[in-house]
Amino acid sequence: MSLLDQRAAYLNEVLVCGGIRAAADQLGVNPSVVSRQIRRLEAEAGMALLERHGRQVKVTEAGELVVEQFRAQQRLSSELRDTLARLNNLEAGKVVVSVGDGFIDTFVAQVLKKVSVRHPDVMIEVKTGIYYPREPHHMVIDDEVDIAITYGPVSDPRLTIRSFVRGPLCALVAPDHPLADYEQVSVADLTCHKLIFLPEASGSQRCINAVFADAGNLVTPAYRCNLHSVARRMAAAGIGIAFMTPKAAQDEIGRGLIRAIPIDHPVAASTVGNLVRRTGRRLSPAAHFLWQLMLQMQ
């Protein structure tokens, strides 16, 4: 990587993270290092790449062009490495996949075990959790990950998308919760109890927000956490109602720790997941095998 590319990497991180301090935290350096590298990049470019307004910064049009070129070069370099590895018949390497926390149990059981047997020398990096401000499909577009699973509708011409039915969005409650014996709950029923929400960037949270908004209810959660697994534990403890599909909570449901009650609203009646990759990107043999297995996920 040239010095210009290295400095452009700092500018790219500022654009991704939304500020110099956030970019520095992400890179593990002092904010002054980020500022200094960008000033040198501006000197080489002969124009401002950041607009500074007190502590706030905004990437200029010229800065966006520099970042776009940097990302294009990174994609080309990645594709070249992948192609050379295949030409040399190398089975080692790395595949990076983003899997939402609600999909992780299915992914490990149905996909990861088979990939580890078929490609034992390939390192699989799994990114999971709730991402902010970056969403999984944006990571795919920028080649930060090879493949991603997302929740809810996604549409972008730069992506190859395979959607699959994930099932209804349900209210998850403990067996002794007042709603546990309901065959179906209304939105009004839910507003009478403590609710457990995920971050706004979560696909399932956006779905439940749409349910409440359509019903004309403004609700404030009693709890908010950033992992589906934590929300499930909180629901199982009986302190509130979490929201996700039965498939996302199948382990706890199977063990009798949680009950999934359907929500009487058309938005919650059926939800979709999406398997996405960047259109035109050449996948390594291991990544292609992983993609094929993920297409069969239930």
TrEMBL record:
Residues 1-60 form the HTH lysR-type domain. The keyword Transcription regulation applies. One of its GO terms (molecular function) is DNA binding. Pfam families: HTH_1 (PF00126), LysR_substrate (PF03466). This is LysR family transcriptional regulator. Keywords: DNA-binding, Transcription, Transcription regulation. Belongs to the LysR transcriptional regulatory family. It comes from Terasakiispira papahanaumokuakeensis. GO terms for cellular component: cytosol. PANTHER family: HTH-TYPE TRANSCRIPTIONAL REGULATOR YBHD (PTHR30419), NITROGEN ASSIMILATION TRANSCRIPTIONAL ACTIVATOR-RELATED (PTHR30419:SF8). PROSITE patterns: HTH_LYSR.
